[in-house]
Amino acid sequence: MQNAKKPIPTQLKLLAGNPGKRPLNTNEPQPETGLGPCPEWFLPEAEQEWNRIVPELERLGMLSKIDVAILEAHCVCYAEMVVTAKSHKPVKAALIGQLRILAAELGLSPSSRSRISVPNPNNDDPTEEFFS
Question: Rounded to two decimals, what is the model's pTM?
């Protein structure tokens, strides 16, 4: 059995301008937003990663409360990679692979980010008044 392509969340389709022009899922759950502070049990490196990515992902409307587990997993993997590298030990390929997967799920990789376009609220298009 072949793996089916994962559906793209409606929020990501909207950010990308719905390039396929297919009908959007109007019944997709809309979880509550707002994550709060990072977990107290994080290593300092995980906390730095949380503080680096969460504000931007929240600003883009790409995080909700139910995303906390995947976000924590990303930060923990990132911290493990940094700690390992700082100790001059080789970073295992499996860890890097897991970090790449989690980053893509969160829209943090360049390729996953390239599929998203965020409308510019300060777009001063002179033709807009004629077409709105």
Answer: 0.70
